[in-house]
Amino acid sequence: MLLRSAPHGYQGYPFCLEIEAGYRLHPDRGLHVAITARNRGSHAAPYGTGSHPYLTVRTPSVDGCELSLPAASWLPIDDRGIPSGPPAPVEGTPYDFRRPHTIGSTRLDHALTGLERDGDGRAWAHLTAGGSGARVSLWAGEGYRWLQVFTGDPLEPERRRKALAVEPMTCPPNAFATGDDLLVLQPGEAVTHTWGIEAWLPVGC
After folding, report:
1. What whole-number distance in Å separates Cα of residue 21 and Cα of residue 44?
2. Domains, the chain, ranges and CATH?
3. pLDDT tens for residues 165-183?
4. Which of 56, 138, 186, 191 can bridge 163 by disulfide, Cβ–Cβ 3.0-4.6 Å?
């Protein structure tokens, strides 16, 4: 499936970007997503992209799930969720999932960076069910320098902590104000970013 938005500006963002979102489902490799932005206007356009997938392994909550996330730094935020300082090391914080461990009662709504990548340039996050061994994994391709992780605590009770959002982002929150990792597309320039999801179920599930 290919979705395309028409290139026209909005109040507050007067730039003419054409956005394409392509979704492919492979029998063996899961979901593959490609997001392409093309500057159809006559002025340079600031740009960042992020997606908001939720991962679930069909457990009643994510508390008993094991999370593996290869991020070395997290972004401190204020009480409104706005970044309040530069990235800080995850070492010694509740946000260090570089070695897989149970989520437990940890509340997550944080942007993480310093991502470790495999030989194909992908950063992987893995969510594993405690008992069954079912696993769902998100990979973020080169260009996605941030992962926003969200346990859903502010959501309504029937959705709270039922799944884990792992959101690939090219820039952190508030990047249009700070300029951190913000992309600038020149007239006629295009850029594509890719991410995907793969799932494994034990035999018999």
Report:
1. 21
2. 2-200 (2.70.98.10)
3. 999 999 999 999 999 999 9
4. 56
